[in-house]
Amino acid sequence: MIKVRVPATSANMGPGFDCMGIALEIFNTVEVQIIPQGLIIENHGRDTDLISADQNNLIYRTMETVFEQVGYCPTGLKITSYNEIPVARGLGSSAASVAAGLMLANALTGEKLGQDKIIELGTGIEGHPDNIVPALIGGMTLSYAQDTAEIGYIKVDFPEKLRMLMMVPDFMLPTAKARGVLPQQVELGNAVFNVSRAALMVAALTAGKLEHLKYAVQDKLHQPYREELIPGMKEIFTQAYDAGARGVFLSGAGSTLIAMVDSDNYSFLPKLRTFLEQRSLNWELRFVGVSRQGAARIA
Ligand code: HSE
To answer: What is the CATH number of domain 2-157+291-297?
Structure first.
């Protein structure tokens, strides 16, 4: 039996659309066994009703991609997942499945694929590298696609003193829907705005100049269009800043919002909880650390 543990991820972090992401300490654990024949998939834990247990399962489909690459055909497979990552909430549940499938299949077939190839395959399946790279590598990453299928990335130091407060709504937001509201053309002024904010994000985090983060998270490429899909988003941003957040952004394509908060800001969570309760918003609030490690084999 082979077992891997994969972190959740938050993509974009405001301005870094399709290129910036960070691994979070919420994990799915997936194990695989070769069986004499057939396909058995068991899903346990969170949102299992939303995860296929047949040949459409994303972990299985990803494993098939690796098997095709290396020319392997298993007799049968049993895949068992234990899930903590919410599905369709902007926390990288599909990237976690892809990362798990890649790692499991590569381990089963004798580790024939190197990490660069794994990243390339994962990005091909996901369509963009911002979730899959931190899911595989851990920490905060800045990824870029080259003219070829090759993906480059750099890990960015993320300050120890910052914690992330996840605000997870009680509704899902499929990525396809959240991408569907984005314009296909971008005004030059908006592009310039995002370039400046994405660069500022990396500079502010690495220099520890956290007072710049509230500007660094600003974005004009996707958040303004997605706001309409998340009732209360604007107000929650305002409340979070009033309560002392360093920066607030939409996690991936949503629906989760994330606030970066100083670790000694103990009043932050109660203030946000009170606000959401007053608005009858049944959101889950949880502080979560950054997972410095990406997908890893644990058995
Ligand atoms: N960068 C992606 C988006 C992340 O915002 O649509 C979600 O897959």
So the answer is: 3.30.230.10
Q: How far is it, in rounded angstroms, from Cα 11 to Cα 63?
A: 23
Report the C-alpha dihedral over residues 189, 178, 251, 146, rounded to 10 degrees: -60
What is the 3-state composition of the chain as percent helix, strand, coil, each rounded to the nearest 5?
Answer: 40, 30, 35
Is 244 within 8 Å of 257 (Cβ atoms)? Answer: no
252 lines ligand 1 (CB under 6 A): yes
- Which pLDDT score is estimated for 149? 80
Q: What is the C-alpha to C-alpha distance for residues 228 and 211, in angstroms, rounded to an integer?
A: 28
- In percent, the amount of the chain with pLDDT more than 70 equals 100
Encoded tokens for 18: 């399709």
Distance (Å, whole) CA 96 – CA 286: 19
CATH number for the region 162-288 comes to 3.30.70.890
**In angstroms, what is the span from residue 179 Cα to ligand 1's centroid?**
7
Question: pTM of the entire structure?
Answer: 0.95
